Amino acid sequence: MTQTKLALVTGASRGLGAALAETLALRGWHVVAVARTVGGLEELDDRVKAHGLPGAGALTLAPMDITSDDAMRHLCLSIHQRWGGLQLWAHAAIHATPLTPAGSLAQKDWEKALATNIRATGQLIPMVEPLLKIGQGTAVFFDDPRAGQKFFGAYGASKAAQIALAGSWQAETVKIGPRVVIASPRPMPTATRARFFPGEDRSKLVAPATEANRLLDEILSRS
């Protein structure tokens, strides 16, 4: 009997993260879905169950804030104790600060962007790396190159720093693992994008479910 594959999806309550978690579950994976929004996680669980697929995997809902070191450390320990290791970590959690001139950036928005997009990522990598090594797994980050664009100061800078950190990890682990992938999603009609581009024609954007399937096909075929 084939052992069920285990994925950790951080930022799983909406947008691409939710689509990835749902798609993985429908492909037979067991998904540990992490997000702060309990309602969003419950809706994700309802959607997976509504499909009623006999070969579908399962969800473990983990409503927690990735900026809480103790919570994430406990979660990673629990994953190790219950399953041993991970085959996939998809890090879709992000804080999108309001668009504003750099000279008018609110301190609380700047600090939240740093805490979520940079600090939490830097704390999570050492926690998750051993699980990925045990499971011969892959870590996936999602690029969104806004650095230097007007009004994107906090988001663009913090997201670029996150991807730079992931890039260093990727270069360091080429020969020893775990495998690290930096993916480039196509524009999707997410709530975050709606905040950034109000009034945009969303009919031209790619559905998160479609993009999740495309990205997973590409990532998993090379793992």
Automatic annotation (TrEMBL):
<protein>
    <submittedName>
        <fullName>SDR family NAD(P)-dependent oxidoreductase</fullName>
    </submittedName>
</protein>
<dbReference type="InterPro" id="IPR002347">
    <property type="entry name" value="SDR_fam"/>
</dbReference>
<keyword id="KW-0560">Oxidoreductase</keyword>
<dbReference type="Pfam" id="PF00106">
    <property type="entry name" value="adh_short"/>
</dbReference>
<comment type="similarity">
    <text>Belongs to the short-chain dehydrogenases/reductases (SDR) family.</text>
</comment>
<dbReference type="InterPro" id="IPR036291">
    <property type="entry name" value="NAD(P)-bd_dom_sf"/>
</dbReference>
<dbReference type="GO" id="GO:0016020">
    <property type="term" value="C:membrane"/>
</dbReference>
<dbReference type="GO" id="GO:0016491">
    <property type="term" value="F:oxidoreductase activity"/>
</dbReference>
